[in-house]
């Protein structure tokens, strides 16, 4: 019997390897805003909401919104499809759906941005609902996105798991009272995720599916159940 009846997935670093497009767009945006990126570790911005990222560099909300606009315009034309699925994603999603588990995304990307990417990569139809942030600031944190998805009526009373690779994903899960599994193949790491006590660390999509479905894995020693 599966451990959960529904799964919320982060997108960047959990379903898709999207860092090439994001990093290029982030560097372009900072340069356009007059910020020298030579001393900035842009990798730490893989995952967090854009307004929080730019808020670390600009105190004026108007400048934060300007940076967000520059980023989104550039990403749409140059970075959006600079991504690929992690190995085993399609197989994992298909196995979970065959077990009658409902699948959702809960991403900091706006839904209008995430949905075309998932369609391009051929996995959008695996999800009951593609949940994402809003283009404005009304739905802009991972916790808010997760609560938005969890409010869907078909999820009432179901056992739900959040899967993500960054601390924002696990913090959102904690805020919503959900178990969380850490995707160690993504952009975070065990040291970043450990303070949030994930119920499972997944070294691959196959191991994640095996654990959710309560099946034996052939890849021993990578995942650590807590």
Structure description:
With 226 residues, the chain is of the alpha/beta class. Helix content is 40%, strand content 16%. It has nine helices and nine strands. The protein has helices at 19-32, 50-55, 61-79, 89-98, 111-120, 142-150, 167-176, 190-193, 205-212, and strands at 6-9, 16-17, 84-85, 102-110, 129-133, 160-164, 179-183, 200-202, 224-225. The strands form two sheets. The protein has a seven-stranded mixed beta sheet with strand order 5-4-1-6-7-8-9, with helices on both faces. Strands 2-3 form a two-stranded antiparallel ribbon. Helix 1 (19-32) crosses helix 3 (61-79), helix 4 packs parallel to helix 9 and helix 6 (142-150) crosses helix 7. 39% of the residues are buried. Mean pLDDT is 93; it is low at 219-223.
Key descriptive features of the protein:
226 residues; alpha/beta; 7-stranded mixed sheet; two-stranded antiparallel ribbon; 40% helix
**C-alpha-based Rg, rounded:** 17 Å
State the major sheet: 7 strands, mixed
Query: What letter string, H or E per element, gives the SSE order?
Result: EEHHHEHEHEHEHEHEHE
- Overall strand count: 9
Helix content bin: 25-40%
Structural class: alpha/beta
Estimated share of beta-strand residues: 15-25%
Give the structure's gist in a few sentences.
It contains nine helices and nine strands. The chain has 226 residues and is α/β, with parallel strands linked by helices. Mean pLDDT is 93; it is low at 219-223.
């Amino acid at each position: 019997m599966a451990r959960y009846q529904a799964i919320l997935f982060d997108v960047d670093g959990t379903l898709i390897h999207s860092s090439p497009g994001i990093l290029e767009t982030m560097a372009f945006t900072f340069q356009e805003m007059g910020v020298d990126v030579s001393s900035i570790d842009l990798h730490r911005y893989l995952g967090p909401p854009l307004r929080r990222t730019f808020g670390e560099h600009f105190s004026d909300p108007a400048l934060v919104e300007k940076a967000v606009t520059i980023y989104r315009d550039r990403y749409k034309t140059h970075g959006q499809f600079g991504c690929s699925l992690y190995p085993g994603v399609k197989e994992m999603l298909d196995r979970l759906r065959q077990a009658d588990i409902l699948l959702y995304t809960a991403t900091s990307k706006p839904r209008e941005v995430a949905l075309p990417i998932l369609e391009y990569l051929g996995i959008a139809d695996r999800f009951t609902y593609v949940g994402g942030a809003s283009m404005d600031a009304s739905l802009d944190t991972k916790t808010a996105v997760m609560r938005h998805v969890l409010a869907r009526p078909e999820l009432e009373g179901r056992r739900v798991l959040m899967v993500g690779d960054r601390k924002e994903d696990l913090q959102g899960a904690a805020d919503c009272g959900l178990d969380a599994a850490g995707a160690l193949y993504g952009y975070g790491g065990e040291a970043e995720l450990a303070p949030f006590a994930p119920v499972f660390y997944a070294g691959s999509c196959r191991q994640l599916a095996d654990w959710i479905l309560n099946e034996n894995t052939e890849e021993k020693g990578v995942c650590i159940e807590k």
